[in-house]
Amino acid sequence: MKKLTAVLLGLVLAGCSSSSIQYQNSTYQYVAKRTSWHEAKAEAEKLGGRLAIFETVEELMYLESQIPRRRIAWVGLTDEKVEGDWTWLNGTRLSANMRDRLERGRGHEFRDYGYILLQGGLGSRADNGELPRGAHGRPQVDGFVVEFEQ
């Protein structure tokens, strides 16, 4: 818990939101910083956590309800190793009932990194977080969600 408190203090000093979200045995922190998925992953690890992993739809829905609206944020989900085989950073495959918008639209073969749509569900984009050509929505991923296990 001391490490988590120090991390949250560091986020406040860096100008990030200080509110943390508790769900079962994890604490989550939304970091408002536009960055690539790989940079977000490295920063989450540097803070002592990881990009968020959602074991259940209920966990995903709870976090969506707690993070600022109209934001999108990187999470620990990727299909960079095998196209269409979405896995969480802990190696767990994404359940079929959580696939949402991951493979919809054109250019999905170039969108290998998952983000949470804070109006509901999961989506995918390229590492740089930019909106795919011809798509509608926010032009850039706004931040990332760090998960700290207790």
Automatic annotation (TrEMBL):
Residues 1-23 form the signal peptide. PROSITE patterns: C_TYPE_LECTIN_2 (PS50041), PROKAR_LIPOPROTEIN (PS51257). Keywords: Signal. Pfam families: Lectin_C. Residues 23-95 form the C-type lectin domain. This is C-type lectin domain-containing protein.
